[in-house]
Amino acid sequence: MIKQEQFESEPWALRERELRIDQLAQSESVFALSNGNLGLRGNLDEGEPSGLPGTYLAGFYESRRLPYAEAGYGYPEAGQTVINVTNGKLLRLLVGDELLDVEYGRLHKHERTLDLRAGVLERRVDWESPAGKRVKVSSTRLVSFTHRAVAAIRYEVEVDRPARIAIQSELVANEDSGTASDDPRTAAALTKPLVAQEGVAVGLRGLLSHQTRGSGLLMSAAMDHVISGPANLTSTIEQLGDVARLTLTANVQPGERVSIVKLLAYSWSSRRGLPSVHAQAIGSLAEAMHTGWDTLLAEQRAYLDEFWDRADVEIDGDPDRQLAVRFALFHVLQAGARAEGRAVAAKGLTGTGYDGHAFWDTESFVLPVLTYTAPNAARDALTWRHATLSVARDRARQLGLRGAAFPWRTIAGEECSAYWPAGTAAFHINADIGHAVGHYLRATGDERFRREEGLELLIETARLFASLGHHDAEGGFHIDGVTGPDEYSALADDNVYTNLMAQQNLRDAAYAAEHAPAKARRLGATSEELAAWRQAADRMAVPYDERLQVHPQDADFTRHAPWDFAATGDRYPLLLHFPYFDLYRKQVVKQADLVLALYLRGDAFTPEEKARDFAYYEAITVRDSSLSACTQAVIAAETGHLELAYDYFAEAADMDLEDLEQNTRDGLHIASLAGAWIAAVAGFGGLRDHDDTLSFSPRLPTPLTRLSLGIGYRGQLLRVEITTKEARYSLRHGPKLEVLHHGQPITVTSGKPASVAIPEISAGDPPRQPPGRAPRPARRK
Amino acid sequence: MIKQEQFESEPWALRERELRIDQLAQSESVFALSNGNLGLRGNLDEGEPSGLPGTYLAGFYESRRLPYAEAGYGYPEAGQTVINVTNGKLLRLLVGDELLDVEYGRLHKHERTLDLRAGVLERRVDWESPAGKRVKVSSTRLVSFTHRAVAAIRYEVEVDRPARIAIQSELVANEDSGTASDDPRTAAALTKPLVAQEGVAVGLRGLLSHQTRGSGLLMSAAMDHVISGPANLTSTIEQLGDVARLTLTANVQPGERVSIVKLLAYSWSSRRGLPSVHAQAIGSLAEAMHTGWDTLLAEQRAYLDEFWDRADVEIDGDPDRQLAVRFALFHVLQAGARAEGRAVAAKGLTGTGYDGHAFWDTESFVLPVLTYTAPNAARDALTWRHATLSVARDRARQLGLRGAAFPWRTIAGEECSAYWPAGTAAFHINADIGHAVGHYLRATGDERFRREEGLELLIETARLFASLGHHDAEGGFHIDGVTGPDEYSALADDNVYTNLMAQQNLRDAAYAAEHAPAKARRLGATSEELAAWRQAADRMAVPYDERLQVHPQDADFTRHAPWDFAATGDRYPLLLHFPYFDLYRKQVVKQADLVLALYLRGDAFTPEEKARDFAYYEAITVRDSSLSACTQAVIAAETGHLELAYDYFAEAADMDLEDLEQNTRDGLHIASLAGAWIAAVAGFGGLRDHDDTLSFSPRLPTPLTRLSLGIGYRGQLLRVEITTKEARYSLRHGPKLEVLHHGQPITVTSGKPASVAIPEISAGDPPRQPPGRAPRPARRK
User: Fold this and answer.
1) What DSSP state is assigned to residue A514?
2) Chain B partners of A72 at a C-beta cutoff of 8 Å?
3) Set of chain A residues whose Cβ sits within 8 Å of the Cβ of B472
4) What is the pLDDT of residues A530-554, one digit of tens each?
5) Can you give the three-state secondary structure of A530-569, one letter per residue?
6) Of A71, A73, A578, the CB nearest to B400
7) CB B95, CB B133: distance < 8 Å
8) How far off is chain B from A770, nearest CA to CA, in Å?
9) Which residues contact A654 (CB under 8 A, 6 or more apart)?
10) How far apart are CA A550 and CA A238, in angstroms?
């Protein structure tokens, strides 16, 4: 493995033994803790040095005016940007007037460990001040999965010689967030977005309330403490402006320990008043104090034990990827676990990249994982979409369409994309949402959700597509002028991915409406409308290039000029070196688009078509997006190119641990991390779920000797253990399940695992990628 | 005629007898004076009230940062905006301490006359102050065609009772330009763009020098005066900051007259220093003083006599349109006459609309007129394009293309379009430039220009198209992903207009290069390159829809959904009510595109194809652009729909006199005015000039009894007089000319006019337009 050497893999922990200041921002993302509601970047306890200080609340944003040199009808006027809220993780240490700062003095030991079973970030420091005073600091930080508003830190200090120390525990709002970036993908710098409303400092407790300047959201952050140490320990608390501060001072002897448990609680609202928001933070804080540190730790572990029991993916034969895939699952869980009515952003709550927006990533990459491993989180994410339906309906109206047009990027539901050819025109997001709904319903059998939010989401997205397309003179149904997943094409006619996903959406909506007729009637869905959806689906255009014997990505794609890879050199990502104009009109693919259709609508293609299509698109896909490798892994595996699949799997899994796109500093690539699971489970496990039967076609790439994966399915829990020769299906938490194994029906009964042989496959030569764009070999040479 | 009633038509003058404050801004545009280098809006002498104060210098601009909420590679960073420079036309009058202000007191008489033969704006005022003092003021304003830096005003005051008067003649920089508009088509408001550099006030002369804040351009404005009046007349001059002011005071008796001739000179430079710019203004001013008012007037008339002798279009049977077409020609001349190395903007120098930018309008609509009526101005405009070649080459490089990529909109040559699908992608502008070059060369036989600027422009634009397109597997040449003239489509493959214009460009370049081999070699054009251009031209794709038997506007156009006109109501222009997304993907046309190809590349279509294509596109063309009616007039006439042609002609001619698009306040639609000439000459005259022989197919619409038009051609001057029955071709300033009359060769010899009968034509039913989008009937009902 070609891995950054400061990180060490253990089966259940990521450990860092060396502090690299130049990679601090990356490590802050990697070591970020979140429960989906509250996120803390892995900033050092003492705040500085830092790459990007970050504390985030799901759904909490500042608005800003979107500027246009040439505006147009329907352009969004306001943008939404995640902001770094009040920092409660600060714990500064003074040793005889010298501030612990790892950039000064001598760092005898540095170790940080992200413990994936305990759900905590541990830190051990042995530091000698410039004046020669030496301290040992250990801190343990958690963001609670069981108390969604709460984070907690235990911070302990020991000395080797008698010393006077001071510990300052703070809440600080409007931190300087460092330098802005010119990269449009990085969040807009918003300086001092929080306006102080009130501050409290009493006993060991502090609180700050603020309101955002533009969006007018209210928030409170509160801290309380449990302290212990030598008898001479004293404390004072104060609050002024944007700071609340508890200061402990003590004369400490060797063998003595000063220990502080800091409990944090956050609350915010767009509607309620300050007293209510304030009270909620104090209430959550009181609950956490009542629960206490040890129980918080125990609950955290219990929550994760249950998760890992369902979701763990075991990999034998590649210890680094074993850790990487668990790291990925852990962060996917962190992004969605307790979002509960808020968007799951592309970066989760680990950084400000993409302005903190949620995209189609959530439904297309993150929810497939959560649906099988943490279904309540998947349901909550879809419930959030449902809660934004009225905004999406308004947007559809504005665009002259029926149904709902969900935003390409948003925090609160409003469209925030300022570049419509890759925003508004990417209507596939609506089918992606519909697909996630259908998938969730099939996987969980959640009847309440089917009748309520699910049905309405399906109906409104189907309406959108019915009004978006048109029937030609021969009756064929076409969706013109839209942008598919590949962002190096835009405004194309009959994008195959979009059309096939819309086809499914129309059918799923008709099916769901027929099975909940009363509710469907209340939503205005008539039998004529259902018939129109079915007809549009049945007549959906799926272009095919007879000459090349492949599916064009869109109606005109394979007629376009090839991209001149020979002249491209190393000018990647292409979008930073070539105009959209040229990218759009040539055969070059940023990310899986037709190939994603081969996966998600695999039922619409023959195996031979898949092989030819995959080879064709491999040769022109440059993978300038982190949303591509996992899909390529899945289809590479299906078409028998297991070594290639393994390389793509590794790329998805290594994305942030190795900072492959050099922007992990802005936050983790949650969808790529989800993609590591997808590559393992849908790739090597061959899981497909086009209909009501789970289908597996497991096959391992050479270096792996065993892969074990877990799928929660309609209350049952299926575990599939794959070796090179056979697969073993076993059932827990359920009576009986029919699955397909390489097309053969298998019945799995509780307590009676089924072991089945894996058939051989012979694929031809592996497809080729554009020069220099093959994935890194996953195996160490 | 459904005309604004405050304007009266005379054969050679536009007269206004009533001052409508609410339409002041429109009248300022209509009464604007310009010579192509210096432009003065028709603001009242006293400055206020005003709609939009305006004094403009061709090429003089302020730069501003173009904002992007989401930026991309190759997006222009800086915009250029025309600014209102130092106002020298101010002449304020005080009558016994009361300021002449037409909004107060009583206006007994108001008359303004734009005299198209004298080239002056006359004003007669009889005003009674609130206190009952009465004055008669007459002013005559000119912007000299013969002194390109100079304007002059004669201002005279008489009283009916003894009165103390004061006249203040000023230069004022950084005037308040009034309220900004939210319409993106209106110029960005730039407040106080000029930084004072120096000021002079001595004797009767004042001067102000300024520099633009962002673009760093230096300018000087200078004034001098010749005064006469009663013996008690005294004068003082002063200068402070942004103002220089001459104040005259006198006690005037009835029968006495105070007269002031104010001479103005402007200079500016992007390169030279302040002393030089200052000296140039003073030099021009001294020349004007030496010439004197009477001679300036005489030279102005002589210049226009010569122009009208060549260019006049006489129309019998519609007095209002007689004036309108002369008004149009006058303003086209004003826009281009002395631009000499600066861009001819879409609004000329009459307002700040479109930021003062030049577009393809210039080459495609204005230059065809100037080429036949003021060929030196056409040559100068093309020389300006040539002067920007290095910027255009850099832009092509940036876009990954060869040759030159001229900007969609600019003042100084740099691309200023901030919306690339309708800017950068509109590559047809390069073919439009090439077409204007070819046309100029054919019409003038200017061999020096052919070998120098003309050849280089043709070669560099041909190179662009050769690199922009690609050959398909069968060898067909395609230009994908570009935007044609119709701005309700974008990023289309094989736009027929673009392809046919590029075809011509490639052929013209190869031809020109072969006829100037030495220069072509110096420009690197090899015989292989010429062969490649010819091959691309010969294999150029021209899509055709066999099912509908029409040319699709682009490869996919006729496959797209029809626009729902029934649901559109009166929501025009569509771009203010519907998203580009929807406009682009449906069959709705903003402005002539395929129909423009039918005109400019009429040699590529059969008459039957023209008739079918015209009928098809008429039904879906909404004419939301002022660049459409004239082209529709031309093809309507060619296909025999003369009444319809007449309606479109009238729309082009009436555009500003009747403020049809409700934005004449921002400046005149110079291309639409040019279009009035095109509609008359190419429509009713049937002039085509695809090759070296002028071809006419004259035919008059019912109300006209006679149309006479003049064409300057290779030093000769052809006049064509058309009546309902016959056409009479006569030649002046030349020995002999072969022309075609309805396809029949005619030889016209000096002194021997040829009269030829006009054949009958029978067209079918006139084509229909979208509901509510038929042109206004030109004839009074």
Assistant:
1) H
2) 184, 419, 575, 579-580
3) 559
4) 999 999 999 999 999 999 999 999 9
5) HHHHHHHHHCECCCCECCCCECCCCCCHHHCEECCCCCCC
6) A578
7) yes
8) 19
9) A1, A3, A324, A660
10) 70
Judge if the upstream peptide bond of residue A735 is cis by omega within 30 degrees of 0: no
Residue B204's CB is within 10 A of a number of other CB atoms, namely 19
Contact predicate A171/A243, CB 8 Å: yes
Q: Is the pLDDT of residue B176 over 90?
A: no
B586-587 and B561-562 strand pairing: parallel
Spatial separation of the C-alpha atoms in residues A334 and A144, rounded to whole Å: 10
Find out whether B374 and B338 touch, Cβ atoms under 8 Å. no
Position B184 scores a pLDDT of: 45
Residue of A nearest to B548 (CA): A473
Q: Does residue A188 have a pLDDT over 60? A: no
φ, ψ (nearest 5 deg) of residue A246: -100, 125
| C-alpha span between B348 and B37 (Å, rounded) | 10
Q: Using CB atoms, pick whichever of A67, A480, A586 lies closest to residue B561.
A: A480
- Tell me, yes or no, if B487 is annotated catalytic: yes
Closest to B220 measured CA to CA, from B208, B204, B236: B208
With contact defined as beta carbons under 8 Å apart, do A349 and A56 qualify? yes
Entry pTM: 0.95
Provide the b/e sequence for B651-676 (b: ≥16 CB within 10 Å): bbbbbbbbbbbebbbbbbbbbbbbbb
Whether residue A698 contacts residue A682, with contact meaning beta carbons closer than 8 Å, is answered with no
pLDDT of residue A2: 38
CA gap B586, B558 in Å, rounded: 9
With beta carbons under 8 A apart, name residues in chain B contacting A420.
Answer: 579-581
Top residue of A63, A468, A585 to mutate, by most chain B CBs within 10 Å, is A585
B130 CB neighbour count, 10 Å cutoff: 10
Rounded to the nearest 10 degrees, what angle do helices B496-514 and B455-468 cross at? 130
- Alpha-carbon distance A132 to A163, whole Å? 11
Strands B13-16 and B106-115: antiparallel
Calculate the CA B442 to chain-centre distance: 22
Structure tokens at A215: 């969006």
The position carrying tokens 């319409």 is: B183
Q: How far is A575 from chain B (nearest CA, A)?
A: 7
Instruction: Choose, from A62, A363, A415, A487, the residue flagged as catalytic.
Output: A487
